[in-house]
Specification:
CATH superfamily of the largest domain: Lactate dehydrogenase/glycoside hydrolase, family 4, C-terminal
GO biological process, one term: malate metabolic process
Strand content: 15-25%
CATH topology of the largest domain: L-2-Hydroxyisocaproate Dehydrogenase, Chain A, domain 2
Organism: Oleoguttula mirabilis
Bound molecules: nicotinamide-adenine-dinucleotide, (2S)-2-hydroxybutanedioic acid
CATH architecture of the largest domain: Alpha-Beta Complex
Subunit structure: Homodimer.
Strand order of the largest sheet: 3-2-1-4-5-6
Catalytic activity: (S)-malate + NAD(+) = oxaloacetate + NADH + H(+)
Enzyme class: oxidoreductase
Structural class: alpha/beta
Oligomer: single chain
Number of helices: 11
Length: 344
């Protein structure tokens, strides 16, 4: 009996040792810029719980060392370090060796504002952080959370292009929260398990540019029910902004969505096949209409974007939503590109 238990323990020990060396071989440094904010803190917490992450580098203009000290006590293996600009090289030190950089740094909306109203403040925050990433970790996957995503992704691309290091396969606008909402809201209407709902959402990340494709999941809503569902997905962010009454926008659900997208990238980077997520990327799908970035299902691989899937079959109503989306998106992209060129 004792011998049998000892044998089991030694087998388990070997399995654990193998798992440990596999993790060590897949060591991944992940940086969060804006780590002390409403999204940054829970996002950093979720990344600390992810065994695929070996080093967590947390940067903010204020408060990152405190967040790092707190999170570092959690009993998972990854190391955590906080950086703040009191030392001039802090951002460089944070980004050195990073393979994934998540950027939630920037101001959130208050009631009555659109995401585009954040442009004037957030454009320069994202530009400056993108410059630091382009200089320090040009090969990292850059995940843009800061709004307005439809414009901050093109701004980031322009920064990387100006430095001669742009790799369209490694730049992602995080639209996962739209997918999470679309799946949760249909499950509330249909009394299904939201974990098994996978509603594709295409386009961009604001208002009419958010286009959920229910028909591809086999659903057909009609009339007011359909319109209310679409409106809730397109304006889910406003629901949270209103409810928080001036204290910011979605942070906890966004942290979950950002951590889920980072996990998908890590899985793909570590060799898992067929990892697919909708995300806003440099896309050929509507380039002929001047829409150079677009969110659709994207297969992820070790080098980032592996394959960009077309939107697929749409019903007539989805087609009409897509047309409105493309018009708005084109304007948001041009605004970002124009600003980045004028404000290098
Ligand atoms: N993509 C999405 O689906 C999605 C969802 C929710 C929120 N957002 C956006 O994410 C952004 C952050 O939202 P939040 O609620 O976390 O805001 P927040 O104000 O709570 O946190 C932002 C953090 O960024 C930091 N920061 C500001 N300038 C910085 C700089 N130059 N370098 C480093 N850090 C800097 C701030 O100190 C703060 O800690 C907003 O723009 C918001 O609109 C996007
Ligand atoms: O609505 C916002 O401003 C934040 C975010 O983009 C969201 O969708 O919740």
């Amino acid at each position: 009996m004792f011998a049998a238990r000892q044998a089991t323990q030694s087998v388990l020990g070997a399995a654990q040792r193998r798992a440990f060396s596999a993790t060590a071989a897949n060591a991944t440094r992940v940086a969060v810029l804006g780590a002390a904010g409403g999204i940054g803190q829970p996002l950093s917490l979720l990344l600390k719980l992810n065994p695929r992450v070996s080093e967590l580098a947390l940067y903010d203009i204020k408060g990152a060392p405190g967040v790092a000290a707190d999170i570092s006590h959690i009993n998972t293996k990854s190391t955590v370090k906080g950086y703040e600009p009191s030392s001039p090289d802090a951002i460089k030190e944070c980004l050195t060796g990073a393979e994934i950089v998540l950027i939630p740094a920037g101001v959130p909306r208050k009631p009555g504002m659109t995401r585009d109203d954040l442009f004037n403040t957030n454009a320069s925050i994202v530009r400056d952080l993108a410059k630091a990433a382009a200089e320090t970790c040009p090969d990292a996957a850059i995940l843009i959370i800061a709004n307005p995503v439809n414009s901050t992704v093109p701004i980031t691309a322009e920064v990387f292009k100006a430095k001669g290091v742009y790799n369209p396969k490694k730049l992602f606008g995080v639209t996962t929260l739209d997918v999470v909402r679309a799946s949760r809201f249909i499950s509330q209407l249909k009394n299904t398990d939201p974990a098994t709902e996978h509603i594709t959402v295409v386009g961009g990340h604001s208002g009419a540019t958010i286009v959920p494709l229910l028909s591809q999941a086999g659903y057909k809503l009609e009339g007011a029910e359909r319109d209310e569902y679409i409106k809730r997905v397109q304006f889910g962010g406003d629901e949270v902004v209103q409810a928080k009454g001036g204290a910011g926008s979605a942070t906890l659900s966004m942290a979950m969505a950002g951590a889920r997208f980072a996990e998908s990238l890590l899985k793909a980077a570590q060799g898992e096949k067929s990892v697919t997520e909708p995300t806003y990327v440099d896309s050929p799908l509507y380039k002929d209409q001047g829409v150079t970035y677009f969110a659709s299902q994207v297969e992820l691989g070790p080098n980032g974007v592996e394959k960009i899937h077309p939107v697929g079959d749409l019903d007539a109503h989805e087609q009409s939503l897509l047309e409105v989306c493309l018009k708005d998106l084109k304007a948001n992209i041009e605004k970002g590109e124009k600003w980045a060129k004028a404000n290098p």
